Amino acid sequence: MSDFTDKFSDMIFLGIIGLHQRLFSNEECVDLNEDIPALRRACANGAFLNCKFGLYQNGQHILPQTEWELFNIFEIPLAELIDQLPTEYSKEIKEETKLYFIEALVECIDTEKCRFAITDQGYFVMSNNIKIRKSVKNKNPLREYHSQKIIENMFEQDYVTKRLFLINEANVYIPCNKIDQTEEQKKFIDSYEDLVKLCYTKNSSNKNKIYLCKNCGMVLKQDESGNFKCITKECNKKIDEREEINISQALIMNDFVAKCIYQPGILENNIRNILDKLKKSSIVLDYDIYPGENQSTYDTWDFRVKLVNEKVYLIDAKDHENVNYIIHDRIPHMEEGSKLLYVVPNKKPKNYLKRINEHFIKRKENIICIRLNELEKVLRKDIDI
Ligand SMILES: [Zn+2]
Description:
Trna Endonuclease, Chain: A, domain 1; globular
């Protein structure tokens, strides 16, 4: 998708998310003083595009720059707005998106009080677009929208390559200077520029230094008073031990990727090391990482392991504080004769594992929960029998 179409789509989608928030934050009357970041961002996108691409007609900007203008545009079919754009841009939007077919999203039900209602078409668009659907339900819709864009990009193509890059400790930051980039980083930026833009933010500090967490390897955040912070409680206990890196400008992995991809990846990397070792000692025949054949099917388990005796183990790395995340995990269809192992960090208490295992024993499912340091023993035992 071109930069123009991408920003234009964000303007529309964030506008819809913000509109929903505006209309439902207060059912009695719309409080126009309440700041809605999604609307602010939608209008900023409009202003940015008008300016960057010179979108003016008879001295007036074409894309909405204020909330009022945005709502007015939502009252008519989007085709009318798209047709006003210079041909090259309207053509691009028609070819790359379905926005041209969106009818009026809102209707004005009380002109005097400026009250709007979402139309059936508006609800249809909201329920059929996963980015909008998930964002309107979230406490922080703007952040959720950004996260959904990352997930969408990863599922589009080369899911495994992208995820492996993001869980690699060497990629928690990428030097802006090409000379300092690794070969893997150079290749990744060339192939997945859009994803890099979504997952990394340029460091704003001009201290020529960044600090890495000794516990997880992530780049530490520093607040205004100079205090350091990392992603987990454990990291923050060891916050005083940190590694200093001299670098002037770098792209830093953002919070969503750090928490939802990089952090769980630490346990996945540890499992992968054990599987590689067992492959060398002819216990494991082979394994797939993030198995999934089609778009969006990768969210199954983290590994499908085939032992030399042909037995199949499905392994899912889990690091949740609450056991219910594992007990109520959505389990995709398991192939016949396979066993699912939930592998949790070694620090998890006995009781934690007991609660999970009792649940699955009761249900007679072929699922067990083990600590990372038991994985090798469990797989070896299967071969020894
Ligand atoms: Zn950390």
